[in-house]
Design goal:
Strand content: 35-45%
Number of helices: 3
CATH superfamily: 2,3-Dihydroxybiphenyl 1,2-Dioxygenase, domain 1
Radius of gyration: 15 Å
Order of helices and strands: EHEEEHEHEEE
Number of domains: 1
Strand order of the largest sheet: 2-3-4-1-5-8-7-6
CATH class: Alpha Beta
Distance between the termini: 15 Å
CATH architecture: Roll
């Protein structure tokens, strides 16, 4: 597994991007993308330096989005995403160690159709997996 990005829930992508630019010098790397399946708009930001971890800004795509509910609870640090070679085997491994699959693999707009899946670990950490490019 390789850390792919850190997800941060935000109310507004543009306002968050401006803040991250001012505070950390980050800029837009990819996106934004509207993903109706995930009920979210996402954009990837970072320094652009080799080896630097990306941040995914995640804004609700509608009032009923899970991201809107997360923000309403005052949460912004949202998840860690790992890139994995075999998403099905990874999910089975995590389930065998007490994690709960909260979203089975589905194609993601932001990854050109590569599948993503979500688990809740026994320590209540939301974790996303994205399958490696083939």
């Amino acid at each position: 597994m390789r850390v792919e990005h850190l997800g941060v829930a935000v109310a507004d992508i543009d306002a968050a991007l401006e803040s991250y630019r001012d505070l950390f010098g980050y800029h837009l790397i990819r996106g934004p993308f509207d993903d109706p399946t995930q009920e979210a708009t996402v954009a990837f930001i970072g320094s652009g330096e080799p080896g630097d971890v990306l941040f995914e800004l995640i804004a609700p795509l509608g009032e009923n989005s899970h991201v809107a509910r997360t923000l309403a609870k005052g949460v912004s640090a949202y998840h860690v995403c790992y890139e994995v070679d075999d998403i099905e085997a990874t999910l089975e491994d995590f389930k065998s160690k007490g994690s709960i699959v909260i979203s089975k693999p589905v194609p993601a707009v932001a990854y050109e159709g590569r599948r993503i899946a979500w688990v809740m670990t026994p320590t209540r950490q939301i974790t996303e997996f994205v399958e490696s490019p083939r």
